[in-house]
């Protein structure tokens, strides 16, 4: 069975024009190849500017590679149209870091979650409403939250709304681009627990884009390390997480050691 998504030798170059004219082209991605199989949970790790979000945008078809190709279930994205394109759109969804920027402040929570159902499925209004209510419960919110506006939701609640919207069309792959980075540690743990539960119930593959190695071992079975647009390492996460590449070891060494407990707080 072909992978959900395959990237083959993709490269992406940006050239920015500033006030003083065009800057030298910058390679955001260089010769990146990877497959994402059904049910996999993959962490895409790398420092700021390493190319993580660029790869996410290419996999989601939001931008085209300058070289190489991305395929959905064996078909090149560039050749997808009509029903085949709608199937791809339904099957691959993304949650961004900035939930406020990703939601229309004038739409209710229910309308936000129902967006992909309206555009990508044939569900009628009643069926959409029932699906929205069950999605709200699935992400730990109340069905009546459907009537609220984004401004009436906390950051963590609005991120759950974005996750509910992303899983609404029952995708085969969910990409999370720093989706929990803005949340406090307690909320991060709650979201990770939610993602693990969704993975086991929906058998959905997850590509978790992050720079935070601590979150990786909690629910990823594979880790890909990016640096300067190139894959440095693509390894299974066993019981321990031993990264071997220089970049991987650097990231691992950078994890803040658990703060030493102040003597006064140590158990008597
Ligand atoms: N639209 C763009 N125009 C110009 N340069 C871009 C563009 N998008 C990304 N870049 C550059 O490509 C490189 C990779 O950016 P990207 O956003 O993919 O990194 P990232 O790993 O997601 O970083 P972060 O962790 O900060 O989100 C960076 O040097 C960035 O400046
Ligand atoms: Ni990014």
Task: Please sum up the structure shown.
With 268 residues, the chain is α/β, with parallel strands linked by helices.
List its salient traits.
binds adenosine-5'-triphosphate; binds nickel (II) ion; ABC-type nickel transporter activity; nickel cation binding; Rossmann fold; 268 residues; ATP hydrolysis activity; 6-stranded mixed sheet; 4-stranded antiparallel sheet; alpha/beta
What would your notes on this structure say?
This protein is of the alpha/beta class. It has a single domain (5-12, 26-252), classed as 3-Layer(aba) Sandwich (Rossmann fold). The protein has helices at 52-59, 82-91, 109-120, 125-138, 155-167, 185-202, 213-219, 246-253; strands at residues 5-14, 17-18, 21-22, 26-36, 41-46, 67-72, 75-76, 92-95, 173-177, 205-210, 222-227, 230-236. The strands form three sheets. It has a six-stranded mixed sheet, with helices on both faces. A hairpin with a 2-residue loop joins strand 11 (222-227) and strand 12 (230-236).
Q: Give the ligands present.
A: adenosine-5'-triphosphate, nickel (II) ion
Helical proportion, percent range: 25-40%
CATH superfamily: P-loop containing nucleotide triphosphate hydrolases
- Named CATH topology: Rossmann fold
Overall structural domain count: 1
If you average the pLDDT, what whole number results?
Answer: 91
- CATH A-level architecture: 3-Layer(aba) Sandwich
Q: Would you list the SSEs in sequence order as H and E?
A: EEEEEHEEHEHHHEHEHEEH
What's the CATH C level? Alpha Beta
- Summed up, the helix count is 8
- Pick out the low-confidence regions: none
Number of strands: 12
- How much strand? 25-35%
Largest sheet, in brief, is: 6 strands, mixed
Strands of the largest sheet, in order across it?
8-9-10-5-11-12
Q: What is the SS-derived class?
A: alpha/beta
Enzyme class: translocase
Pfam families: ABC_tran
Domain ABC transporter: 5-253
Family: Belongs to the ABC transporter superfamily. Nickel importer (TC 3.A.1.5.3) family.
């Amino acid at each position: 069975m072909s992978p959900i998504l395959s990237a083959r030798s993709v490269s992406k170059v940006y050239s920015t024009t500033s006030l003083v004219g065009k800057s030298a082209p910058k390679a955001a991605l260089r010769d990146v190849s990877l497959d994402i199989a059904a049910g996999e949970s993959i962490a895409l790790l790398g420092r700021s500017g390493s190319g993580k979000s660029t790869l996410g945008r290419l996999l989601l078809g939001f931008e085209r590679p300058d070289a190489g190709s991305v395929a959905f279930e064996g078909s090149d994205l560039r050749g997808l149209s009509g029903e085949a394109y709608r199937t791809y759109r339904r099957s691959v969804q993304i949650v961004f870091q900035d939930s406020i920027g990703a939601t229309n402040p004038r739409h209710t929570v229910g309308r936000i979650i129902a967006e992909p159902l309206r555009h990508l499925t044939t569900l009628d209004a009643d069926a959409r409403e029932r699906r929205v209510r069950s999605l709200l419960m699935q992400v730990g919110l109340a069905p009546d939250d459907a009537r609220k506006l984004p401004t009436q939701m906390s950051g963590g609640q609005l991120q759950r709304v974005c996750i509910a919207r992303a899983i609404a069309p029952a995708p085969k792959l969910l990409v999370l681009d720093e989706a929990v980075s803005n949340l406090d540690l307690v909320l991060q743990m709650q979201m990770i627990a939610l993602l693990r539960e969704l993975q086991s119930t929906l058998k959905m593959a997850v590509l978790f884009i992050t720079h935070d190695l601590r979150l990786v071992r909690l629910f990823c079975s594979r880790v890909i390390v990016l640096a300067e647009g190139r894959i440095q390492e693509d390894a299974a996460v066993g019981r321990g997480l031993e990264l071997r590449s220089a970049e991987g070891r650097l990231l691992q060494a950078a994890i803040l050691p658990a703060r030493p407990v102040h003597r006064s707080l140590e158990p008597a």
